[in-house]
Design goal:
The chain is of the alpha+beta class. The protein has twelve helices and 17 strands. The strands form three sheets. Strands 9, 10, 11, 12, 13, 14, 15, 16 and 17 form a nine-stranded antiparallel sheet that branches. Strands 3-2-1-4 form a four-stranded parallel sheet, with helices on both faces.
Length: 364
């Protein structure tokens, strides 16, 4: 079977690597000349709105999926009309627009931080009445890895924050005093079977994920999994989906979802019976899902901007190095490292050393 992937970055690369042992081959559609996934399959170079490139891509695949959510609607619906796309276009398109996404959560009874839309200055007072301050102003589209947002500490900060974001449609969200940032990743098959991996606890710096830890049997696991399964069912979803959450005391607030494999689930490659990448392919290809249990406590550390010595990384006992083959650049995700260990102290020490090597503050 030939799997078509919209995008050819590191997530597409890891999907292709997971597919190879299953006899699945990948074809990529991406505008870049030499994206990092291209050596692992056939690369159709073209824009996602280019009808000729999209048609050639569609003609060459048996099923199509996306490695990121910001894909043109015409591409998604064109593939869906041909019966190729998984997950569905609705699931991807809703995630592209923060107000629509938050409204979906509200309809499903999933708790969120207080939020309100801002389209013009006339909306400021009503938005502040709902969200209050301190708050975060976010663009409704194209925000990721800390981009497209500004802090609003007081009422007077709202106008300059909006101007700094280009006066585009935004959403104002109350800043919540969370204790932990969590994510839950689940997969749903074509026949409606759902399987969920253990929770991940995540540490961000400057809006970019730096460290994720698997949390088997965490007290919040059942609640998070229930929220994720509710979302999967509502969207009639096929494939892997990640749901990001804030823990505030005994409550979980839903932040956003990603209709794809997710950075916080990279630990599943070595740390789970079946990785998120393999199960995504199994789901969209109509194959039985694999078990999602953790094989041992795991940690994933992102490599951002520049590489430390590979020799130093691999000197850490149990370290697994994943190099995406990208050129160093500030803020760019170049790879990740995982550790899997039943010994809690060995895992802590190894994580601390990896964090030191890649420049993460503290021990993650």
């Amino acid at each position: 079977m030939n799997i078509g992937i919209l995008g050819a970055g590191q997530l597409a690369q890891m999907l292709a690597l997971a597919g190879y042992p299953l006899g699945l081959r990948c074809t990529f559609l991406a505008p870049e000349e030499a994206p990092c996934a291209a050596p692992l399959g056939r690369h159709h170079r073209g824009d996602y709105q280019n009808s000729a490139a999209l048609a050639a891509f569609a003609d060459s695949v048996d099923v199509a999926t996306a490695e990121f959510e910001h894909i043109a609607q015409v591409a998604l619906e064109g593939l869906e009309d041909r019966g190729l796309l998984a997950p569905c276009s609705e699931a991807i398109l809703l995630s592209q627009e923060r107000l629509q996404e938050k409204s979906l959560f509200t309809r499903l009874g999933l708790p969120t931080a207080r939020y309100a839309p801002i389209d013009t200055e006339a909306d400021f007072n009503s938005a502040l009445d709902v969200a209050g301050t301190p708050a975060i102003l976010k663009t409704r589209r194209m925000g990721y890895d800390g981009k497209g947002q500004a802090s609003v500490a007081a009422v007077a900060d709202l106008l300059p924050a909006w101007e700094s974001l280009g006066r585009v449609p935004c959403i104002l969200e109350a800043r919540v005093p969370f204790e932990r940032e969590l994510s839950v990743i689940a997969v749903r098959s074509r026949d409606g079977e759902c399987r969920v991996w253990p929770l991940s606890e995540n540490q961000h710096e400057a809006g970019i994920l730096r460290v994720s830890r698997s949390l088997s049997n965490d007290p919040m696991e059942g609640l998070a999994q229930g929220y994720c399964e509710r979302l999967l069912e509502a969207l009639n979803y096929v494939g892997v989906l990640a749901l990001e959450l804030f823990q505030c005391g005994d409550e979980l607030l839903v932040n956003e979802y990603a209709p794809r494999v997710h950075n916080s689930g990279h630990w599943t490659i070595e740390g789970a019976v079946t990785s998120q990448f393999e199960n995504h392919l199994r789901a969209i290809a109509g194959l039985p899902l694999g078990a999602t249990a953790a094989v041992a406590p795991s940690v994933m550390v992102n490599v951002i901007g520049q590489w430390p010595s590979a020799r130093d990384i691999l000197a850490v006992p149990g370290a697994h190095l994943h190099d995406y083959g990208k050129s160093p650049a500030p803020g760019r995700k170049l790879g990740h490292i995982t550790l899997v260990d039943h010994d809690a102290e060995a895992l802590r020490q190894g994580t601390a050393e990896l964090c030191r090597l890649v420049g993460v503050a503290g021990e993650g």
